[in-house]
Amino acid sequence: METSEKGIALIKRFEGLKLNAYLCSAGVPTIGYGNTYYPNGTKVKLGDTISKEQADELLKDILKKFEAIVKRKLKVKVSQNQFDALVSHTYNTGGSDTLFRLINTGADKQTIKDWIETRYITANGVKLNGLVRRRKAESDLFFG
C-alpha cells in the first residue's frame, strides 16, 4: 500500500511548503513539506533552498520511509484512509508504538480516536493549535 493523493494532500496542508530552510516550532532546520533530512541522510541546514519541484520529489522520496514504518508496525489490515492517516501521523511524529498497539490489538474506536486527538499536540511543552487541528484531521481520515 502507498499513500494516496488524499493522504499526500493532508500532509502538504499541515506541513505547508517552505522553499527556504527555517526553524520549525521544535527548533529544527526544516525545508519543503516539513523535511528535516534529505534522502541521502544529510540534515537540512539553515540557508538551504529548493524549488517546488524538488520539494515534491523530496516528499515523494521521504514518504517511502514513513510508509515502511507504518507497514512494519501494522499487524492488521487497514483501509486506504487508515493507512494515509497513519502515514501522516508517523511523518509528523516518527511513529507511536502505543498507537500501533491500540490498532493491532483491536482497541475500540473511541479509545483510538481519543488517543490520536490528544497526543503529540505540543512542541517544547506548548500546545499548538496547528497540531490539534492536524490530529483531528488524521482522526477524521482514519475513521472516515
The main sheet orders its strands as: 1-2
Dominant shape: globular
**CATH fold annotation:** Lysozyme
Q: Care to count the β-strands? A: 4
Q: Could you tell me how far the N terminus lies from the C terminus, measured between alpha carbons in angstroms?
A: 18 Å
Helix content: 55-70%
Average pLDDT figure: 95
SSE arrangement, N to C? HEEHHHHEEH
Report the top-level CATH class: Mainly Alpha
Taking Cα atoms only, what radius of gyration do you get, to the nearest Å?
15 Å
The CATH architecture can be named as Orthogonal Bundle
The number of domains: 1
Low-confidence stretches: none
Helix count equals 6
Strand content: 5-15%
Structural description of this entry:
The protein is mostly helical and 144 residues long. The protein is built from six helices and four strands. Strands 1-2 form a two-stranded antiparallel sheet. A two-stranded antiparallel sheet has the order 3-4. Helix 3 (80-93) runs antiparallel to helix 6 and helix 5 (109-118) runs antiparallel to helix 6.
Briefly, what is this?
Helix content is 56%, strand content 10%.
Task: Based on the model shown, name its key terms.
single chain, about 140 residues, mainly alpha, Lysozyme, two-stranded antiparallel ribbon, two-stranded antiparallel sheet, 4 strands, about 10% strand
Architecture blueprint of SSEs:
Blueprint: H1 5-15, E1 18-23, E2 29-32, H2 52-73, H3 80-93, H4 97-104, H5 109-118, E3 122-123, E4 126-127, H6 129-143
Antiparallel strand pairs: 1-2, 3-4
Helix pairs in contact: 1-3, 2-3, 3-6, 5-6
